[in-house]
Design brief:
The protein is of the alpha/beta class. It has one domain (about 5-115): 3-Layer(aba) Sandwich (Rossmann fold). About 45% of the residues lie in helices and about 15% in strands. The chain has helices at about 25-50, 70-90, 110-115, and strands at about 5-10, 55-60, 95-100. It has a three-stranded parallel beta sheet, covered by helices on one side. Strand 1, helix 1 and strand 2 (about 55-60) form a beta-alpha-beta unit. The termini are far apart.
């Protein structure tokens, strides 16, 4: 299968105090936000490089650049996405395979609800 444009847009969040978060849910978040994105990129970029054309769009977040209490692992996973994107951009910049990180801020979606986000969490 030839893929000309890969958009790595899957992602999930998980809010809460780090020491109280479920480790299986943290692992699943890292698996989706980091591992799946890496494996898909690894799967499809060799063909793009061989054809000397292609685009990889990585959806990260402005969260990649700030520590976020109650979203520590999410922010770290987005830092991974942004850093990987920059490294791949450098590696592929002369190949006509373009790598772009999109880093939006807060967007009105069901993300916060799905992540269990509470805007003022008590430290109990």
């Amino acid at each position: 299968m030839q893929v000309g444009v890969l958009v790595n847009n899957a992602g999930v969040g998980y809010a809460g105090w780090f020491g109280k978060q479920d480790t299986a849910r943290l692992a699943a978040m890292v698996e989706l936000n980091c591992v799946s994105l890496t494996l898909l990129t690894s799967l499809f970029t060799p063909g793009m490089l061989a054809r000397k054309r292609g685009v990889v769009i990585m959806v990260s977040s402005v969260s990649a650049y700030q520590p976020l209490p109650t979203h520590a692992v999410y922010a770290a996973s987005k830092a991974y996405v942004s850093t990987l994107s920059l490294a791949l951009w450098e590696e592929m910049r002369d190949s006509n395979v373009h790598v772009l990180a999109v880093e939006p801020g807060t967007v009105v979606t069901e993300f916060a609800t799905a992540a269990g986000q509470v805007f003022m969490l008590a430290r109990t």
